[in-house]
Structure formats: structure tokens, C-alpha cells
Design a protein that fits this description.
Layout: E1 10-14, E2 17-21, H1 29-37, E3 44-48, H2 54-57, H3 60-65, E4 87-91, H4 92-98, E5 116-118, E6 122-127, E7 130-137, E8 145-150, E9 155-159, H5 178-191, E10 203-206, H6 214-236, H7 241-245, H8 254-257, H9 266-279
Parallel strand pairs: 2-3, 3-4, 4-5, 9-10
Antiparallel strand pairs: 1-2, 6-7, 7-8, 8-9
Length: 281
């Protein structure tokens, strides 16, 4: 787990090379590569993106150039020719969002685009002697979220479906929803297995924040479910957004997850939750 100013990066290392989950911001690429090289001089073979946001994909182009695509039949995955550099794996909606129709300026450089995408269910890789499952989570943080399950290592990279620093960001403009996040968190809980007295066991790497286990994500799920039910009940009573905000439906969780300043405030979370739940009526 590599922690920096962007989202967390997960690194799997073995004889075949290096696999990364998420690449933070582009300006952090040199620092990420330096951290990688303290552990291994093997080439970067795969980059997996959990979603589209630049704090998780910004370093794609730089880190891809530092890698090399595997040729031959040693790896399961049907990687199409990506030229030089590592293969970038993501849900198709990530590619759709980063690219653009002919004649239109794309929001991301072509060197950062996924080279290998999937549409439904999951994409399976076998790399460094380990099964790696890239599992689609629809309408969660965005419309293109994946969680990445390292089956032998017993590690799950959750992307921004799970964060420990704020309330989850619900990107309404990109198809995100509160219910989708809760469904995805429940999927992670299904995959995770705790050790003694609910501590340890499966490690869960959040999109932002500290390393966690199943007990942490169960607390997170319970918090989101309680807040969801409170807001949903108010919506059923035809309360406006301002009327929902007034009694502070998140107040008992604000000391840990709330914020009044920064990129994602409590008010923004409540507003996005309200919009998301209203749309599902």
C-alpha cells in the first residue's frame, strides 16, 4: 500500500513483475516510482484503475511508460496490443469517460487510457501466481467502479467506494449513487473474512485513508445505511433538501467523517445523497 497526496496505490510484486492498482496524480509519478523501486526493479506489467478520477488515474501515462506489456501465453486476460508499456485495465466506462469522439478534445491524454476493458461482471487475471479479480460495482462512487480482490494475498483494493477520511463522494454527474455504494460495500463484506475477534483477516485498502479490515468496513456500512434510511424517510415525507439538512441527519457521525471545508464537505454529501435517493423513487 503506497500512500500519498492522491488516492492510495496498491502494489503486487512477484517473479512476473509488478501490478499496480491506481496511480494517484501525474505530478506524483516520480515519487511513486521511487517507492516502487525501493521494493522491486521488476517491470510494471499491469495498472488497474478502480475508477476515472484523476487522483487515481493521473499517473497512468507516466507509470505505464515505466512498464512493459507481457507478451506470450503466461498471463490470462486477453490483453490487446498496447504497444510499449504496461497494460491498463479498467471498466469500459472509465475508457469512455477518458476518451472522446473523433474531433473532440479528450479529457485525458491517450497514453493514460485503459488498454484492456470489460463491461459486465468481472475480469479475471492470473499474475505472479495469484488470481486477481477485477469486479464491477455499478452506480456506486461513479458508473465505472471496480474493486480488486487479490485472492491468495487476501487483500481487497476498494477505490473510493470505501474511504476513511470523509463521507464517501457520490459523483452524481458520473452515475454515482448512495445505494450503489452501500451495495458495493456489502459486496466487499461478503468477500472479506475476519480473523480472531473480528480483527485482522482480509486487508482492505481504501481509496483514501488507513489500512482496514472487515470490522472497519462493517462500521462504515452501518453508518451509511443509517444515514440513508434517515434521509430516505424524510424524502418520503416530501421534505425539501433544506428541510433534510436542518436536523443534521449525519450529526452523530460528523466528528469522524464530517467536514465543513475542503473538496468534499458534509453538506455536499447530504445533498448528493438526497439527489441520489430522490432519483430512485
Amino acid at each position: 500500500m503506497i500512500v500519498g497526496a492522491g488516492g492510495n496505490t496498491t502494489m503486487q510484486v512477484g517473479d512476473q513483475g509488478i501490478l499496480l492498482v491506481d496511480t494517484m496524480y501525474a505530478q506524483l509519478s516520480d515519487k511513486i516510482l521511487a517507492a516502487i523501486r525501493k521494493i522491486s526493479n521488476k517491470p510494471i506489467r499491469y495498472i488497474i484503475n478502480t475508477h476515472i478520477h484523476p487522483d487515481h488515474t493521473g499517473g497512468n501515462e507516466n507509470l505505464r511508460k515505466a512498464g512493459a506489456t507481457i507478451a506470450g501465453g503466461n498471463v490470462v486476460g486477453n490483453i490487446r496490443d498496447a504497444g510499449e508499456g504496461a497494460a491498463i485495465v479498467a471498466h469500459e466506462n472509465v475508457l469512455n469517460g477518458m476518451s472522446a469522439p473523433t474531433g473532440v478534445q479528450a479529457p485525458a491524454p491517450s497514453g493514460a487510457w485503459p488498454t484492456d476493458t470489460y463491461v459486465h461482471g468481472q475480469k479475471d487475471l492470473y499474475f505472479n501466481g495469484e488470481a486477481v479479480q477485477v469486479i464491477y460495482q455499478p452506480a456506486a462512487h461513479t458508473d465505472g467502479d471496480s474493486i480488486v480482490f487479490f485472492r491468495r494475498s487476501d487483500v481487497i483494493s476498494a477505490g473510493d467506494i470505501f474511504v476513511t477520511t470523509t463521507y464517501p463522494v457520490i459523483d452524481i454527474q458520473r452515475g454515482g449513487s448512495l445505494n450503489g455504494i452501500i451495495d458495493s460495500v456489502n459486496r466487499i463484506i461478503d468477500l472479506a473474512v475476519p480473523a480472531d475477534k473480528q480483527e485482522g483477516g482480509t486487508y482492505i485498502i481504501p481509496g483514501h485513508g488507513r489500512l482496514c479490515d472487515e470490522a472497519d468496513i462493517v462500521e462504515y456500512r452501518d453508518m451509511l445505511t443509517i444515514i440513508r434510511d434517515r434521509i430516505q424517510d424524510m424524502i418520503k415525507k416530501t421534505m425539501t433538501l433544506q428541510q433534510v439538512k436542518a436536523p443534521k441527519p449525519t450529526s452523530d457521525y460528523d466528528p469522524r467523517s464530517g467536514a465543513t471545508t475542503g473538496l468534499w464537505t458534509t453538506d455536499m454529501f447530504v445533498e448528493a445523497a438526497y439527489q441520489s435517493l430522490s432519483a430512485r423513487k
